[in-house]
Amino acid sequence: MPESDAVPNERFREARIRLFGSRQALADAVNQLVPDAYRISDNDIGKIERGQVTWPRQPRRDAYRQTLQAATDQDLGFFDRREQQPGAGQSLTRHAAGNLALLTQHRVPTSTGAVPKQVVNQRLDGEILRRAPWEIALTETQGGRLSADATTHVLATPAGRALPGLEIPAQLHPAVHNDKIVVQIPAGYAADPFLHRPGRTLVVGQTLADDPGAYLLDSRHARRMLRGAPLDARLIVPSAYRLDELTYALLWAVANFDAELLADDAALAAGLRDAASYTALRRSAASRDIATDLSPASFMWLGSQFCADHILRHASDLTSPPLFWTREQSGEQAAAWLLFTHKHDYLRATATTGGGATRVFCVPEAAVTSSPAGERALLLLAVALMESHGITTTTTDTAELAAIPGFVLDPENTAITATWIGADGIWYVDVTDNHGTLREYTDAAGHAAHHSVTAAPTPTLRLRHLADYLDLDWAWLSVRCRELGAAGTSGIAQPRSRLLSLDGVDRACRFVAACAGDRD
After folding, report:
1. What's the CA angle centered on 375, arms 481 and 135, to 5 degrees?
2. What are the residue boundaries of the structural domains of the chain, listed by start?
3. CATH 3.40.50.1370 fits 268-456, yes or no
4. Most buried of 25, 110, 198, 489, CB within 10 angstroms?
C-alpha cells in the first residue's frame, strides 16, 4: 500500500510503547515465537504502525497477540484490506469473498453412487489453509489420535481469468515433523488404488503437534518413493512442501493449466497446423475461429507460442540490444513464463542473442491490490526467472501504459509487436520501421524507466523493490524459495502435459534464494 494512502495503526503502536518501548524489543520478543521464515525486524513493525501492513501473516499475528496481550487481531488494529475490495466474484483474484478455509461436506457422484467427501474451500490471499488441514484431521480423531485409514478429500482451487478451477482428490494421513515430514501411511500403501488413479491426486501429511501444518506430495511422486519399499514403509516428505500461499498458487496454476492443455491436446495440434499458414507474414492477427474448441487456457498457450516464434523469426532484424515490453500483470498471466516449455526455450534464446537486453513490466497498483499473495509471488518469480538469464527488468506502475501491446524495440531500426495478452483474437504480431510506432514505443519505454518502482543497479535490489511494491514479505519469500529450490517442486505439482515444465519455477526459486544471500 502506498504510504500516502495508509492510515497509522495507533492501537498497535500504543500497545508496543506500553509493553516494550522500542520496536526492536518487540521484534526480539516476537522472533522467539515464530519459525525462521516469519522472523521480523524493527522495520516490519514500523510498516504496521504506519499502516502500510494491515494484515501480517498468521504466525506473526499470533505472536503479536501473545506478546502484546491482545485477545483478537482487531484489538491490535489488524484488518485484511482485500476483504474490503468491492465486488465478490469467484475468480482467483476475487476469491477473498467467503470464509477462510471453510471445511464443508460435499457429495461427489461416483460409479458406486454419491460418496461424501470433504472439500477445503480455499481463499488464496492472507492465510492460505493455515488451520484447515489439521482441523480436518481433528474431526477424524478418536481420543486425540488420527486413524491410520485415510479419508478422501478434495482440495478445491478457484477459477481465475482463464483457468476454470478444479478439485484435486487428496488423502490425508497423520505425520510427525522431524528434520523432514514422516507421513504415517497404512501398510501396503504402495498398492492402494488411490495412488493409481488416473489424473492428479495428492497425498497430504498433517502434523498436529507444536507446529501444525499440511505437507503435500504428488501421488505419482509418492508411487515412485514407495516402489520396492517394505510394506510398513513411511513416506518422507520435504518440509519445503508445506501448504501455504506459494505452494498453493503453484499447485493451482500447474493443475489447472495441466488439465486444460491435456483436454485440448488434439485441438491444440490442429491449431498449430492452422497457425503455420501465418508464419510467412510480417503482420497477422488470428481470430479464435481457427481453434473454436480450445479453452481460454489453451488460447493462452497457442497465442504465447506463436508470439514467441514470431519474435525469434525476426530477431535478426534487430541491430542493438533490444528492449522487451511485457504485458503480464497477474500471477496467472506470468505463470506462462514459469510453466510453458516453449517460454523456457524462447527466454534462453533471447537472453543469448540479445546481450544487454531489458524487459519492462507495467503493473498498475490496481492489479496489485486485486491480486492475492500467491499470484503476486508467481509474478515475482517470473521476473526473477528473467533476471536469472541476465535480462535486466524494470517495473512501472503507470496505469496509462497498461494498454501498450507487447513489443521488442530496437529504437534506431525496428519494432517487433507480439502480443497475446489483451489481444482481440489469439494474437497480434507485426514488424515495422514506421517512425510513429518507433516513437510511441520509445516514449513508453523512456517513461517506464523514469517511473520505475524497482530501479536499482543489481538484480537483488530490483527483486527486493519489487517484493515491496507487490506487498510480499521478502524474508518469508526468500526462505520458502531456498527450501523449494533445494527440494525441487516436482514432488508437489508434477505436470502431466508435455507442454509444461517446472524448470523455470525451480530456477527462479534458486535465483531468489541466491539473491537473498547477496548483501546488495
Report:
1. 80
2. 3-79, 92-243, 268-456
3. no
4. 489
